[in-house]
């Protein structure tokens, strides 16, 4: 370089390298770069508008509609997040007047203008409104889901929406007058690649799951990534889960015929299923009814393993990544409900019917049978080392395996710091700033990802904590789930207030069936051996 040569600048770099740099920059920096000059604008704009979010808060719906109406900007959007959060002023289940801004309802159909959208993140509130609460009731959630899915399917129209709203018979605090309608709305299907729903209500609304719009969107071969975080109805402000809500059991039992029906499951490459409370045994979810030949990534949150068939079934998958987030094994169960003695017939085209036994599950919808408890026949019993020892060889494609507990509902401080560092546009209200980072554990179970380094490593979440103390958790069921260790801590405390004979009369039979003293050692040894085998497999493939 001679003395008269111009000083090199960032613009001297090839456009391909500049675009790569732009893809790593935070949004607020990209928005500033758009104002530098035309070249920077052309580089920064696609990344600045790649992901869009609008909540039912402030002027966010209006800003979303403004971008949607821009033919230049809307084509860059490939990810949209729609959030029903109405702001920091409102606390659920406190009997406040609840009214979602009409602009939020207006904004929903504008999603159809973003033809290049590949990812949709739909976020509801953690609390499910039910018969005793005003907020986010089943009718409200149906209205949101129905509008969005008709929008995605290309079947939304103003007349159809008005007619649907009449049929919902909304109470006064949900009613609104449609103020704005998108022009030139698309009549073609938006082919999503990824669909995530935070706090999906544990209620199978058949009006929605049998609708043409729902089937059109979920049947698309392009939908290969489905992530659901299922919310549960609670008894009170303290979010104590209730087992008396029958619809939740129908919800889980219906998953293989609704969200995971064969036409959906056969295309899935990634499946994330989480729930607020333990599930899998009760409420029952029978994975044997699913066929997912293309599945590569599976993440389960709060799933309870209970049956020997699960050892073989999960071990037969061709998955490459497996995440168990807050999962447990059912050790012992007592119930006032009748045990299931039925079987399910699985029909496969071109093959003989398969009869699946439902033994070892509780029979849904039954009541107390006398004054005694039935011990659920969980024989042969499974332990964590039973599962892990089998999977270490049967899951021959496995490249990543993590178990522990992640940050599901709270926003990790490392994530907030990484995502908002230096952002001059971040809200001064901490609740407003941190809210987008809540309820994301079911989406970011694989974080931190290898492609993110430095201070941004936790930008999307901290992932599963593999140092979780209760990693090898066992559950005890006595009309509700309790940690096996907690149950026995309470029983040992009772020894101080009872004679030994009384204690043995109360718990002696259970003590004889207690968890083997070396079970946790076997569990840890099985996990270590499984991880070693995966590491050796990875080294051999290099």
Supply the helix-strand structural class.
alpha/beta
Main sheet specs: 14 strands, mixed
The residue ranges in which pLDDT falls below 50 over 5 or more consecutive positions are 367-372
The proportion of residues in beta strands is 15-25%
How many strands in all? 16
Please report the distance between the alpha carbons of the first and last residues: 42 Å
Number of domains: 2
Question: What percentage of residues falls in helices of 4 or more residues?
Answer: 25-40%
- What value does the average pLDDT take? 85
* Helical stretch tally: 19
Radius of gyration (Å): 26 Å
- Shape estimate: globular
InterPro entries: F-box-like_dom_sf (IPR036047), F-box_dom (IPR001810)
Pfam families: F-box
Domain F-box: 7-57
Protein name: F-box domain-containing protein
